[in-house]
Amino acid sequence: MTELDSFLVYALTAVTLFALGLHSLLSRRHLLRKIMGLNIMSAGAFLLFISVAHRNGKEFADPVPQAMVITGIVVSISATGFALALARRIRKKTGLTSLDYREKPSPENHNRP
Amino acid sequence: MMVLVVVIPFSGALVCFLVPKRVRRYAGLAAAAATSLMVILFALIPKGADTFHHALGGWKRPLGIHLQADGLSIIFLLLTAVTAFLVSVYAGPYFDSPQEEKTVDHHFWTLWLLLWGGLNGLYISSDIFNIYVLLELVSLAAVALTTLKGEAEALIAALRYLMAAMLGSLVFLLGVAFLYAEYGILDLGGLGGELRATLPTITAFGLMVFGMLIKTALFPLHFWLPAAHGNAPAPVSAILSALVIKSSYFVLLRLWFEIFPSITTYAAAQLLGAMGAFAILWGSFQAVRQERLKLLVAHSTVSQIGYLFLLFPLTVAQITGEHDPSWSMQAWTGGICQAVSHAAAKAALFLAVGNIVHALGTDRLISLRDLKGRLPLSVFTIGIAGVNLMGLPPSGGFVAKWMLLNAVISSGQWWWIPIIVLGSLLTAGYVFLMLGHVFAPSRKPVLLEPVPRTLEVSAFALALCAIFIGFTTSGIIDLLQMELHAMPVPEALAWSLP
Asked: I need a surface site. Which of A13, B57, B293, B467 has the fewest CB within 10 A?
């Protein structure tokens, strides 16, 4: 496989991951699924950065995208932690596991995906 | 010098986190004053390439992180400094009042200074990845601020806001990745010079603009805004509506006019303008229908954001697709004046409404009747801020709409005229809806909670600032003509090009 081909494989995977995450964020009602969707989206974006870093075919990879991905991971971790804390607080206060007001809080809701 | 604009609020945030609870308020206010002072000093120093450009740690492009400022940055820095300082003055007594003390936990100052530092950093950063990081910082701090009250409604609104904001920044990040893959540079000016109309570039353009539209809450992407802004404590609502929205708008301006000017088209600009037009009508229509004061003001934000987006179609000529036609400077001035005067007026409005809610203990529109001529200063503030939003002379809002209308007429894009006029009428509708209730006979005698003087005066001062902006337009025009200093276009590192 040539350089360009392998870059294309990585790039397409990255975009697919991003789209999958977006789908999960928009179509799932459960908060955990939405937060996971956001995480998968950021994984897609990071994969695209990393695949850009090594498409020149030299011995060493471009350090700039890697630095960006590390920064991005830190941002993503703090955002995820914050979102999870919020979701937990919401469930504790209202029993809801989604942002849908119409849903009746019920004990089974807690385990439903 | 420029670094201090960012360093002071961040260190202030750390100090506020560490000092004991009872001095926090004073430490926070001191940090806020220091930051505002620093920004004003920075705006006053003579303009030159060395003062307005800084490489952090002495690292050269493209590896290092660079800061640079132009007229637009200075306008937004000053706007933030003035609004933020008055909101900080307001926040001290507000969070100390016994009513709020029980419910609000005392991390307001830490989060607020973090947010402010993020905003300042955003306005002077010169590469798109740095912009992404600061946008995330601003969003996270903003969401955390909306949760301060801890009520279930506020939490749900905050989580929805967080999801929308994260979606916006991730889409933006994907756009950054596309641009880096294509050009191997992140620098604003460098990208603008290199840009070619290739498929990845156009995709990146679409993604980044879309991400910023979600964060700016342009119709129909405004779904998260009213609940988040309407359920936060008063100073936080003011900060969110006045400043946080403007930060993503600022990034949009940077994208549109610094990076992508060579591929923006007439059609794309018209699309943004049309979304803005729908926002103006829909937002004011919803505002007129609200029964809760804070939600009314939040919907008014949705509609005022619409005016900001009329700037885009008015800077591209119709037939030739020529950029920078003769009237574009008027459109620019109008758009920026709108951003500045909306910030001051909306902050004043939220703070004044906060006073009334504080006094009455409820934010139902109908209970305004029970005020019965009391709290005259807060009601007057609502009136002045309303004059600004409607765009009556001599306010900043008037200058903004006048300039926009002028640009509309000289560009021949007549279809924006009914929108601007109808929007102003509807704005008058909801402002008079508030004021009308104040003058109606009261239903029952109500015991008002006393409102500290500082709260009323700081809200009033903000409203006066909004009027004053009408007289400083020439300053704004001068600043706008100061462009980003031409930097040597950074060469991409040898290994980053394919």
From this structure: B57
